[in-house]
Design brief:
The complex is a heterodimer of chains A (about 280) and B (about 140). Chain A is α/β, with parallel strands linked by helices and about 280 residues long. Chain A is built from nine helices and five strands; from the N terminus they run H-H-H-H-H-E-E-H-E-H-E-H-E-H. Chain B has one domain: Heat Shock Protein 90. Classes of the chains: A alpha/beta (about 280), B alpha+beta (about 140). The structure holds adenosine-5'-triphosphate (ATP) and magnesium ion. Chain A: Keywords: Phosphoprotein.
Chain lengths: ~280, ~140
């Protein structure tokens, strides 16, 4: 019965969707929305006429679920909110129920039975939509996590012969490897003799981070350069002492500025204020 | 007859368990611990100590315990508030706790400072372990302790 009314349902559904204030014309054009809706209705109505309303795991439902899942995933990636994605499915339910009411008319009992079927089915489909939507969002988050991890730590040439490397965030093993490699490479490329590792942006120094720092310093020394660690905040200094980590073999400074000053001294450079000459 | 004193009674005000099985969970756990510490107005130095201790224990749990879970509690005793963390894993366990608590002892070619260092960073520290069954480490850091 709904098969014949496919056109009607689509029109009703589109009307519902377009009337919704949450319509995201910025994210999806009306034509695309119509195409998505039509595809879904097509496969949905085909299944409805087959009569299997309950077992969504059966093969005949898989095209519907695939289409719906595809739509949910795309929407998650495009930045639709859960409410907007939900509205897509819920407005279809309304369109279906409305059509049903027009068709069945006064036979309340039949209307109720059919409505219940549609309700249950659409609820199940909504759950599937949400599960897929959330999976899509999780993928986005995972991708971003990877991207953040990949942003390599920049090595800056602050002066001829002096490199600085600001480290922001947690220093884990993988990150240390990247830091160390790019630092050593840069030392070779620029022929620098002093490297400053600034850890102002590292939230905590535990024994692993400390070990990574010590390794980086030793590696720099092997290259014939000196490595200074700067940006050690008071609370970090206290924690390091309590942990029992020995950093006494390493030149440490509280700020990047004082590390730079130390570097200048080592290189026998002097920064002077110019006194204007009075003629 | 003696009336029992409740001086040392510690009350748990809130509870939250976080499972730690992969690297992302570690970051999440540290952020939660920090949030809780900030909420009870723990000072910056103590916050850093607690965070560093948590970082040591969660790393041990991942490396030697094969992952596990951490119970985060806000506790109160008398007038002071604090954070209690309980790390539980079902890993290989520690055969000799006394040795493991010694500075420099490590079966993982590391600094061997995690457990003894943690003990120095917190107010209360207890460790239970059984070979083949797992390890539980509990620490408490008071907001102004
Ligand atoms: N959860 C655990 N399960 C099993 N063994 C553990 C666990 N935690 C610690 N150990 C054992 O106790 C030893 C000491 O731990 P500790 O954290 O002090 O040092 P580490 O982890 O080896 O080095 P570091 O923490 O300084 O990098 C470990 O080498 C390991 O053998
Ligand atoms: Mg350790």
């Amino acid at each position: 019965m709904l098969q014949k009314k496919k056109k009607n349902i689509l029109e009703l559904w589109m009307k519902n969707q377009l009337a919704d204030e949450g319509l995201r014309e910025d994210l999806i054009s009306n034509d695309d929305l119509r195409a998505q809706s039509e595809e879904l209705i097509d496969s949905l109505v085909t299944n409805l006429s087959s009569g299997n309303f309950t077992d969504l795991n059966s093969d005949e439902w898989s095209p519907v679920i695939e289409i719906l899942g595809g739509i949910a995933i795309t929407r998650a990636r495009q930045g639709f909110s859960p409410r907007e994605t939900g509205a897509f499915v819920f407005s279809l339910k309304e369109a279906l129920l409305e059509t049903l009411q027009k068709e069945i008319g006064d036979d309340t009992k039949a209307l109720f039975t059919e409505s219940m079927k549609i309700n249950r089915l659409m609820d199940n489909l909504s759950v599937i939509t949400f599960e897929t939507f959330i999976k899509g969002r999780e993928e986005v988050i995972l991708r971003q996590t990877d991207e953040i991890a990949e942003i390599s730590t920049p090595v800056i040439r602050v002066w001829d012969g002096i490199l600085a490397l600001p480290i922001i965030g947690t220093l884990d093993s993988a990150r240390t490897q990247v830091v160390m490699e790019s630092l050593l490479q840069e030392i070779v490329d620029t022929g620098s003799s002093i490297a400053i590792l600034d850890i102002s942006g590292v939230p905590a120094v535990d024994s692993l981070v400390a070990q990574h720092l010590i390794k980086t310093v030793s590696a720099t020394r092997l290259m014939g350069a000196e490595c200074i660690i700067s940006g050690i905040r008071p609370e970090i200094a206290q924690t390091v002492v309590h942990l029992g980590i020995d950093l006494s073999n390493i030149v440490t400074k509280s700020t990047l500025a004082s590390a730079l000053q130390h570097a200048f001294k080592v290189m026998r450079l002097e920064v002077k204020k110019i006194t204007p000459r009075t003629n | 007859m003696r009336i029992p004193t409740c001086q040392t009674m510690i009350l748990a005000l809130s509870k939250d368990t976080i499972k730690v099985t992969q690297e992302q969970d570690v970051v999440f756990l540290k952020n939660r611990v920090k949030e809780v510490a900030v909420k009870i107005k723990m000072g910056l130095v103590n916050q850093t100590r607690l965070l560093t201790a948590a970082s040591e224990l969660v790393r041990n749990m991942m490396r030697y315990g094969g992952g596990g879970s951490c119970l985060i509690e806000v506790v109160s005793s008398g007038r002071s508030n604090g954070v209690r963390l309980t790390f539980t894993d079902k890993g290989q366990g520690i055969p000799d706790i006394e040795a493991a608590m010694r500075d420099g002892f490590s079966t993982g070619k590391s600094l061997g400072l995690g457990l003894p260092g943690t003990k120095r960073l917190v107010n209360e520290f207890s460790i239970k372990s059984k070979v083949g069954e797992g390890t539980t480490v509990t620490i408490v850091k008071w907001a102004n302790g």
